[in-house]
Amino acid sequence: MRRFVLIAPLTLLAAYRCQDAKGRVTFSDEPCGPAAEIVELEVHRPSAAQRREAQRRADDAVAITDEIMRQRTRQRALAREAEIRFHEERRLQAEREQAEREAERSRTAGARTLVSDRRPPPPMGPPSKTPPPAHGIKPPKRDRPDLKPPPKRPPKPRPLHPPRP
């Protein structure tokens, strides 16, 4: 991509300075009244060396911009490849874990049947009010004040009339 800098001399060589009744100053390329003053403009015309230097700086800026764009494109491509690798590794890891779970299920399928056969039969008779303690843990006593449920609050009274908008 190549960009050009256009350096053109000014075509306006004179301007008119005008002042209105409020004291505001304006400049124009046409006389704005009998009191208009002609203001000479200095026109800068760059030499050939200055034009070459400006063109060289513009070319350098274009080269730097192009290099930055190439680097960004490379970085985006590398990031995309890394993302693809990451997702592929996650997919493979999930497949490995699934295969391990299935292998574990197939190994323990017979053992689970034996364990399920050893469960004690359910008790016969009416169910008790409190369930038996699990694994030797005693149920908490309900007569302690710190274990009582909090008292119920009465419901909030409703207004007799709906609120006005």
UniProtKB/TrEMBL annotation:
DUF4124 domain segment(s): 5-56
InterPro entries: DUF4124
Biased composition (Pro residues): 121-134
Superkingdom to which the source organism belongs: Bacteria
Compositional bias of kind Basic and acidic residues: 86-107, 140-149
Pfam families in the cross-refs: DUF4124
Ranges of biased composition (kind: Basic residues): 150-165
Region annotated Disordered, chain positions: 86-165
Keyword S-adenosyl-L-methionine: no
Keywords: Plasmid
Protein's name according to its UniProt entry: DUF4124 domain-containing protein
Organism: Allochromatium tepidum
The organism's taxonomic lineage, starting at the top: Bacteria, Pseudomonadati, Pseudomonadota, Gammaproteobacteria, Chromatiales
